[in-house]
Amino acid sequence: MISILSLLMVMTLSILVTRIATVALTYTGLSRESAKFQARSAFTGVGFTTTESEKAVNHPIRRRILLMLMLLGNAGVITAVSSLIISFVNVRESDSYILNIFLLITGVVLLWSLASSKWVDRHLSNFIAKVLKRYTRLNVQDFSKLLHLAGDYQITELHVNKKDWIADKALAEVGLRDEGVVVLGIERQNGDYLGVPDGETEIRAGDILIVYGMGGSIEEIDQRGGGREAEAEHRRKVADQQRRKEREKRQDIEQQQQDASKS
């Protein structure tokens, strides 16, 4: 039983370490998805050779974080495997064997539930950010607040495939802004980056668009195919965005009138 508890403790610490690293990498400018991927990759020791990984390694602060993760990950994996082996090798009685399996499954399910909880993630991330800001020299900045991300608005990456309706078209032609999605930058397949692209900039297959907008709108664009159906869906979304803007404008005017009447 002690070996099982030791294994669960190692797993708990592993989750905590990767979560701390994810928050730290996020505050160096990486997106949360990228930071989570890089942290788990480094901790587990799996190989990763993407352009995104090269950027993480070339950044001095990110490199130190990843190196520490690799060191802790090797020790954690070895300890976990050793504890698992010991917990079952030394068991002779069937009751103890069943008890160990029950404890192991229960502990793993509980840890998985906690790791997947958005409530735990939000509060733990806030706590980690405060600790990093107070006890480290890491330049901790809340990019979500700086960019005024609220509600369903987010900044994310949009990968362009050959069959996507936006491929091989200029930004002005596809009119993503009319759907409420703003393209902040474009990363070419060869690694070149175009910041603040204008309407004449062509979107190519293999590009990664850095976009800002509502999560649902971005996801819908990402899943949209090509052809006439895509164009028709684009027109419907433009109309929906126009109605949303008019509604938000009315609400803003009403709030302004209420504030004026109070004063």
What does this 3D model show about the protein?
The protein is built from 10 helices and 6 strands; from the N terminus they run H-H-H-H-H-H-H-E-E-H-E-E-E-E-H-H. The protein folds into 2 domains: 2-135; 153-235, Regulator of K+ conductance, C-terminal domain (Alpha-Beta Plaits, 2-Layer Sandwich). With 263 residues, the chain is of the alpha+beta class. The strands form 2 sheets. A 4-stranded antiparallel β-sheet has the order 1-6-3-4. It has a two-stranded antiparallel sheet with strand order 2-5. Helix 1 (2-26) crosses helix 2 (32-44), helix 1 packs parallel to helix 5 and helix 1 packs across helix 6 (118-135). Strand 3 and strand 4 form a beta hairpin.
Task: Provide key terms for this protein.
single chain, 263 residues, alpha+beta, Alpha-Beta Plaits, four-stranded antiparallel sheet, 10 helices, 10% strand
Shape descriptor: globular
Beta percentage is 5-15%
Report the sheet with the most strands, covering strand number, pairing sense and barrel closure.
4 strands, antiparallel
Low-confidence stretches: none
What is the total tally of β strands?
Answer: 6
Distance linking N and C termini: 68 Å
- Roughly what percent helix? 55-70%
The secondary-structure class comes to alpha+beta
Helix/strand order: HHHHHHHEEHEEEEHH
